[in-house]
Specification:
The complex is a heterotrimer of chains A (477), B (497) and C (283).
Chain A lengths: L10 E5 L3 H8 L3 E2 L12 H10 L6 H19 L2 E8 H4 L7 E4 L11 H14 L5 H9 L4 E4 L18 E7 L5 E5 L15 H25 L2 E2 H9 L10 H18 L2 H13 L3 H17 L8 E7 L2 E6 L7 E4 L5 E3 L12 E2 L3 H4 L21 H12 L2 E10 L5 E7 L1 H7 L4 E7 L7 E8 L2 H14 L6
Parallel strand pairs in A: 1-2, 4-5
Antiparallel strand pairs in A: 3-6, 3-8, 6-7, 9-10, 9-13, 10-11, 12-17, 14-15, 16-17
Chain B lengths: L5 E8 L5 H12 L4 E8 L2 H9 L5 H5 L4 E8 L2 H21 L14 H7 L5 E4 L3 H13 L3 E4 L6 H14 L3 E2 L5 E4 L2 E4 L6 E8 L2 H13 L4 E6 L12 H12 L5 E6 L4 H12 L5 E5 L4 H6 L3 E2 L3 H9 L8 H12 L7 E6 L2 H13 L3 E6 L3 H4 L10 H10 L5 E9 L8 H18 L5 E7 L8 H10 L3 E3 L2 H11 L6
Parallel strand pairs in B: 4-5, 5-6, 9-10, 9-11, 11-12, 12-13, 14-15, 14-16, 16-17, 17-18
Antiparallel strand pairs in B: 1-3, 2-3, 7-8
Chain C lengths: L6 E7 L10 E8 L2 E6 L2 E7 L8 E4 L5 H4 L6 E4 L3 E4 L4 E4 L4 E3 L31 H20 L2 H11 L9 H15 L5 H12 L5 H11 L5 H12 L2 H12 L5 H12 L5 H7 L1
Parallel strand pairs in C: 1-8, 1-9, 4-5
Antiparallel strand pairs in C: 1-5, 2-3, 2-6, 3-4, 6-7, 7-8
The chains are: A alpha+beta (477), B alpha/beta (497), C alpha/beta (283).
Chain lengths: 477, 497, 283
């Protein structure tokens, strides 16, 4: 009776020469399928760093990373975002005061900002009454009379230019699970809008209407209602053809339907009519709520030492930035390019602005492009088939730590959305997070000229991984 | 509509498939030429009724029970019917293998070690043969996931080897390598290894072809191998300290199936040798030690049996005695020697196995023969080229050149069989051997050829067949590398230029 | 000796907990995410908890692909209150932290509005048995008869119609049986007096007339025991919101390939949504 090394049979993984696997199989071993290629695109040191950070409960570093990631994932999956209120940004957002504007993406100075963002800054300054003319506003911004900060640093997120000024009404979302709050402005709709850098009178009028009518009316209705469960709306919407970033019509409809009776009750007839008309015409209204909800979940998972989970992906039109749970305030940035996609008639890649906005917070938390299986129509923007949409989501499972059962995807057998992007897996496999995105014209104020599917750049994740390695004292990080 | 004269069916027991799969298969069958209708259903009474109404019920399907899957076709002729049913059977079997991943990518193929382990829960061993640059990271990942590691890659930095072996030791896992070419675990050959009988001889080695030779000779002697654990070429260096050899010794000592342990290696660094011999002294299992060219006294002092050659080690472990050179071989050698021309006095060894080359060198030197021995598996010959055990072309070229070498008396060769080796190594060399001998003859010389085959009857190449090929090419075939070297030395005995 | 870590079970159905005392069973059938074990003449199912709890189930957290592991029908299973072992593939299921679950469907009473299922018609509810019209029609006559018999309160006629549906249709749980499970569940949940006698009668007729797996579900239905996803749909229909219903229907549709849709069809028939429009939609 031989005492075998593998009493239940040899189960082998063959890394390298394929021929070695053949004799294993011939002798009755089970061999895993594997189409190996050098990790981290052949960068030896980065590949070794991934290995050193891999889970290992017998090793201090490996155990720390595993435990930290488990905690981060638990916080993301356990998040319970609810809409509490709508009130002026200057009141609700901590640290927003004086002549200060928030913007999307990682930190950036006015002089460097791209066209649409500079336009939005001008528009916001005019809206706040800090300047009387665009030229004045421009000068103020250029000479440092306005303070700038990323939305992300103040618990906020903004689509496209993402400019937030103190008088703008913002949604106040609370993650009931941990109590933290997140904020976003109200979506203006399509066409000539501030977030694409427009600042003419029609834009300012709409901003005033939002400040004076839309915001207060919705806020009153929400306060009367109690709270609105954003997670539940998102879960339903994902089963109705939305993905939470580029398709929001189902969620917007559910939201409107939820709030309409209370709106009618708390507002006068004309206001209720105007608000509901506005919501009827704005298919993307829920986007900002979706973003704030995702932000509240990711913020809860941020700041866990040793965690390799990605907690933010954001662009300011010049650079793409990534944040990790375990590396605190650091942004890992690289220059950002123009997204690949389908252009509206009359426009082309030469007109396009580089990728812009905080809306990638949706992908960061597992919806948006990660949930493309829920919204196959999106792939039309890159000439793909419906099966491609499913494959995008399947691909994202490779770089995430968990599946969010609360957000089930019908076409994938109700599998949960891929959640908890692990920078180790991104670097090792080279699979870049996929992002569904709108494409803006690079001149301020022209607006959206297309939509597409883009990928987060690998450099950010390599830099982030090295930073985690250094923070844990991994040799050679 | 095709005139359907023929109804055929087949019953599959224990075949549970969901309705979509079955309907898809049915749809595919109906798309085939000559098939009018097809049905795949569980043979419940109700479904048998449905089949009857559809004209698909024959005696086979009628006799089936509710837990049987029936595939029934109505076809224009027998060939179409049989073809369709075979196709259905293949699709049903394929569905078994793919394991229908419901909700996951049908086309997903892992590209990383972690993903592969995800697809094979309970993975317990990892073979790594990537370029050395990447090997350390893969080995780390494998050890972290609790797998034993067979690390074939070379060019792995020494510091990495030390780190990996320390991690392996902490986890109680084997890290075989770097530069480990051979192992046999639970009777399964890993890397370049032979199909040898399972038995009670445990083998631990730092030399790949040395392990192959010992294991084949153990098999030839009628005994078998429990485990053959490679420790990598550098394990017995000072800085690595013989970590794996010591771990393997402990493991085999504890293994109830291993009754004798054989250690093979180049002579270790002094401190390491001492540590290994100390370990040997304190274990109960008998140990045979071949430290190629090492001092037998120290081995004996540790209570182990020294062996000067791989063959001696194999025979000692198998409970046989080395019988010395077969008199028939000696006679054949002398006969060859008598045919040599005056300029011929040297042995030219062309080897594919490094350890076998090393052993031959030692023996030829001890016999005071004039010789050169080339290990064509050495780095200088294998840059940008496959190893000679896989690709015989370079060795063939060298063989032919020896035909023109006036001093060359004997061509000495090793032929290594087993997994990963060339499918017919002897046959691949015989044309070159013939040409070399012809060239020598044309110049008035006689080129003797001596070879040994390291392999077993169970190897795909077949030991007997390979030996026969070499005989046919005029070679003297010795049963071991050591004997082949001895035969070569005998042929040139007394001839010194 | 087990080669992989034990798989945690999160719940065990009350209906099959007693089977864990039998020391041995055998694997009956193997699927990628589920295994049926034959124990003392009954079937016990090990399945992924994400698919919903089953009346004869032990729900597992993150099970491996059983087929890919090489588990085969006939392999031995060792059972115990703390653990189930499958020695042929070195797998153990850890029951120590599993909660007990009662698969009995509560009679919530009330009436369900048949129109609430209408939005889901395009997703496969009421799709019947197979993609070809003639397949469906063969089934629809029996369904129509069942519906009319229910309206007349005629148990004998209901059982007659059910007899034509037992074992009928594709799949290893034939569609007709799945439909009858959904139908019985709806009767039970609405507190219909014929619910239990009907389910018992169907189980009797189905013995030997359908696959083992389908019969197991009908047997549980005869005892008022149903799968979680069926209960969720009924709860949402009777007392839940549209959102609850959408999610519950979605989860039920994920069950099997058409089993979920067939069960929903059964529910639809029982609550009165059988009319020309439905037959047309299915055609």
């Amino acid at each position: 009776m031989t005492a075998d090394l593998f009493p239940d049979g040899m189960r082998a993984v063959n890394v390298g020469l394929a021929g070695f696997a053949d004799s294993l199989r011939e002798h009755g071993a089970t061999v895993a399928p594997l189409d190996w290629r050098p990790p981290a695109a052949g960068d030896r040191d980065l590949g070794l760093l991934v290995a050193r950070l891999d889970d290992d409960d017998g090793d201090t570093i490996g155990a720390r990373v595993a435990a930290a990631n488990a905690q981060a994932v638990e916080r993301i999956l356990g998040a319970q975002p609810v809409l509490l209120d709508i009130r002026p940004a200057g009141e609700a957002i901590p640290g927003l005061g004086g002549r200060m504007l928030l913007h999307s993406g990682p930190p950036i100075e006015f002089a460097e900002m791209c066209g649409p963002v500079q336009g939005a800054v001008v528009g916001a300054a005019l809206f706040e009454g800090w300047a009387g003319t665009p030229a004045e506003a421009q000068a103020m911004a250029a000479h440092g009379a306005i303070e700038f900060a990323p939305c992300h640093h103040h618990g906020a997120v903004g689509p496209m230019a993402g400019v937030v000024s103190p008088s703008m009404p913002v949604v106040e979302v609370q993650n009931r699970e941990r109590g933290n709050r997140a904020f976003a402005t109200l979506n203006e709709g399509l066409g000539k809008v501030l977030r694409f850098g427009a600042y003419d009178e029609s834009v300012l009028q709409r901003l005033r209407w939002i400040r004076d009518t839309l915001g207060p009316a919705l806020g009153r209705a929400i306060r009367e209602q109690g709270t609105i469960d954003l997670k539940s709306i998102t879960a339903q919407a994902l089963q109705m053809g939305d993905e939470g970033h580029n398709r929001n019509v189902a969620a917007t409809s559910l939201f409107t339907r939820t709030l309409a009776p209370m709106l009618v009750q708390t507002a006068d007839a004309a206001t209720a009519r105007d608000v509901l008309t506005f919501l009827r015409g704005n298919d993307h209204f829920f986007l900002n709520l979706s973003m704030a909800a995702c932000k509240s979940a990711m913020d809860a998972a941020h700041g866990i030492e040793g965690s390799t989970v990605v907690t933010a992906m954001a662009r300011n039109g010049v650079r793409f930035g990534v944040r990790l749970s375990g590396t605190g305030d650091a942004w890992f940035e690289t220059p950002v390019g123009v997204p690949d996609g389908l252009y509206f008639p009359g426009f082309g890649p030469d007109d396009a602005n580089p990728d812009l906005g905080d809306s990638a917070i949706t992908e960061t938390s597992g919806i948006g492009g990660f949930a493309m299986a829920a919204a196959p129509a999106i792939v039309r923007f890159v000439g793909g088939t419906a099966e491609d949409a499913l494959d995008f989501t399947r691909e994202m499972y490779r770089i995430t730590l968990a599946r969010n059962g609360g957000y089930a995807l019908p076409p994938l057998g109700f599998a949960g959305t891929p959640t908890g992007i692990d920078v180790r897996r991104v670097v090792e496999t080279g699979v870049q997070p996929v992002i569904n995105t709108g494409i803006a014209h690079r001149e301020a104020g022209v607006g959206q000229i297309g939509a597409g599917i883009t990928r987060a750049p690998l450099e950010c994740f390599g830099a982030g991984l090295r930073a985690v390695g250094r923070s844990l004292g991994v040799p050679g990080a | 509509m095709i005139a359907a004269n023929l109804v055929r069916s087949r019953v599959f027991a224990n075949s549970y498939r969901d309705s979509v799969e079955l309907m898809r298969i049915a749809a595919e069958l109906e798309g085939r030429g000559g098939i009018n209708r097809a049905g795949l259903v569980m043979a419940t009474p109700a479904n048998q009724g449905v089949l009857r109404e559809a004209g698909l019920l024959d005696a086979t399907a009628a006799a089936a029970g509710p837990n049987d899957l029936v595939v029934a076709v109505a076809a224009a002729d027998e060939d179409a019917a049989d073809g369709a049913i075979e196709r259905a059977a293949a699709l049903l079997q394929g569905a078994d293998r793919d394991g229908a991943r419901g909700g996951e990518s049908r086309a997903f193929v892992p590209t990383t070690l972690g993903e592969a382990v995800g697809e094979l829960p309970g993975a317990n061993v990892c073979l790594i043969s990537t370029p050395g640059t990447y090997a350390t990271a893969e080995a780390l990942k494998a050890l972290k996931r609790g797998m034993h590691v067979f690390l074939f890659s070379d060019n792995v930095p020494l510091e990495d080897e030390i780190e990996l072996k320390a991690l392996a030791a902490r986890k109680g896992l084997l890290l075989m390598g770097p530069d480990c070419g051979t192992a046999i675990l639970d009777g399964v050959p890993l890397g370049f290894a032979n199909a040898v009988r399972r038995g009670s001889v445990g083998l631990i080695g730092a030399s790949g072809t040395g392990m192959q030779q010992v294991s084949c000779l153990v098999d030839r002697a009628g005994a078998g191998i429990s485990q053959a654990i490679g420790v990598g070429g550098r394990d017995l260096d000072e800085r690595v300290g013989g970590v794996m050899m010591l771990a393997a010794l402990a493991r085999l000592e504890a293994d109830p199936a291993t009754k004798v342990i054989v250690l093979i290696s180049k002579p270790p660094a002094a401190s390491v040798a001492a540590r290994v011999l100390d370990a040997i002294r304190s274990i109960g299992t008998p140990v045979v030690v071949n430290f190629l060219g090492g001092d037998p006294a120290a081995v004996r002092a540790a209570g182990a049996t020294p062996a000067a050659t791989f063959e001696e080690a194999a025979l000692a472990a198998s409970g046989s005695r080395a019988a010395g050179l077969d008199p028939a071989l000696v006679e054949a050698a002398r006969a060859e020697g008598a045919r040599l021309a005056p300029t011929q006095d040297a042995v030219r060894g062309l080897f594919s196995g490094g350890s076998l080359a090393g052993e031959a060198k030692l023996l030829l030197k001890a016999a005071h023969a004039s010789f050169t021995v080339i290990d064509l598996g050495d780095d200088e010959y294998t840059v940008g080229r496959p190893h000679p055990m896989i690709d015989p072309r370079l060795r063939s070229e060298h063989i032919v050149a020896i035909g023109d070498d006036p001093a060359a008396a004997v061509l000495l060769l090793d032929i290594v069989l087993g997994t990963a080796s060339h499918p017919d190594p002897a046959g691949a060399l015989t044309p070159a051997i013939a040409e070399a001998r012809a060239r020598a003859a044309a110049a008035g010389r006689y080129l003797a050829v001596v070879a040994s085959v390291c392999g077993t009857a169970a190897d795909a190449q077949g030991l007997e067949r390979q030996e026969a090929e070499l005989h046919g090419a005029g070679a003297i075939v010795a049963p071991s590398n050591a004997q082949a070297a001895a035969v070569a030395a005998t042929i040139v005995e007394g001839r010194r230029a | 000796m087990v080669s992989s870590p034990p798989i945690p079970a999160t719940s065990v159905s009350d209906a099959v907990a007693p089977l864990l005392a039998a020391p041995h069973g055998a694997v009956h059938s193997v699927f990628p995410r589920a295994v049926n074990l034959a124990v003392d003449g009954r079937l016990l199912t090990l399945a992924d908890v994400r698919a919903g709890r089953l009346p004869n189930g032990v729900a597992l957290e993150d099970p491996p692909d059983f087929r890919a592991l090489g588990l085969r029908a006939g392999d031995r299973a060792d059972l115990g209150p703390e653990e189930i072992r499958l020695p042929s593939v070195g797998l153990a299921i850890d029951l120590s932290r599993a909660r007990r679950w009662d698969p009995k469907l509560a009679a919530l009473g009330g009436r369900a509005d048949p129109g609430r299922l209408r939005p889901f018609a395009s997703l496969g509810v009421a799709s019947g048995f197979g993609p070809r019209a003639e397949d469906r029609w063969r089934g629809w006559h029996a369904i129509d008869a069942l519906h009319r018999a229910l309206g007349a309160g005629d148990l004998a006629a209901m059982l007659g119609a059910a007899g034509a549906l037992v074992g009928r249709g594709p799949g290893f749980t034939p569609s007709g049986d799945d439909l009858l499970v959904g139908f019985s569940a709806a009767l039970t949940a609405t507190g219909h007096p014929l619910a239990r006698p009907f389910a018992r009668g169907v189980a009797e007729r189905a013995r030997g007339a359908t696959t083992d797996v389908a019969w197991a579900y009908l047997d549980h239905a005869a005892r008022g025991e149903y799968a979680e996803h069926v209960g969720a749909v009924l709860r949402a229909l009777l007392v839940g919101s549209d959102g609850d219903l959408a999610i519950a229907v979605g989860r039920a549709l994920a069950w099997g390939a058409t089993s979920g849709a067939d069960a929903l069809t059964g529910i639809a028939v029982a609550i009165g949504w059988v009319d020309g429009a439905m037959l047309e939609a299915a055609a």
